[in-house]
Amino acid sequence: xxxxxxxxxxxxxxxxxxxxxxxxxxxxxxxxxxxxxxxxxxxxxxxxxxxxxxxxxxxxxxxxxxxxxxxxxxxxxxxxxxxxxxxxxxxxxxxxxxxxxxxxxxxxxxxxxxxxxxxxxxxxxxxxxxxxxxxx
Length: 136
Description:
By secondary structure, the chain is an alpha+beta fold. The chain is 16% helix and 42% strand.
C-alpha cells in the first residue's frame, strides 16, 4: 500500500550573532540532504509554530531563543523528493546557552557564516528567507 501523501508544516529560524553572522546547519537527511539550512524542524500535532521553533532549536542546538519576527512562509515543494512542506521562518536571537550539534545523526555540521559568505549549496527555504531579509 502506498504511503498517503500529505502536506506537512516545518519551521526554521534565522539566527544572527552580534557580528551579523548567520547560523546554518548541514543536513544529512532528506529533504535536501547535503545542503546548508536554517535550523528548524517539524511542527508536532497541536503545537503552535512558535513553540515548535523554540523546541526544535533547543533539541538541535541546545540553546534557548526568543522570536523577534516572522520573516516569511516558503512553499517548500520538491517533486523529485516527493516533499511538500509549508515552512514559516522566524528571525530569532539566542537568549541562553552555547550552540552545539545535539543531533549528529541528522546534522553533519553546525557553523556560523558571514552574511556575505553564504555557501552556494543552501536549501530552498534558506534561500527564500535570506532573499526576504534582503541579504542577497
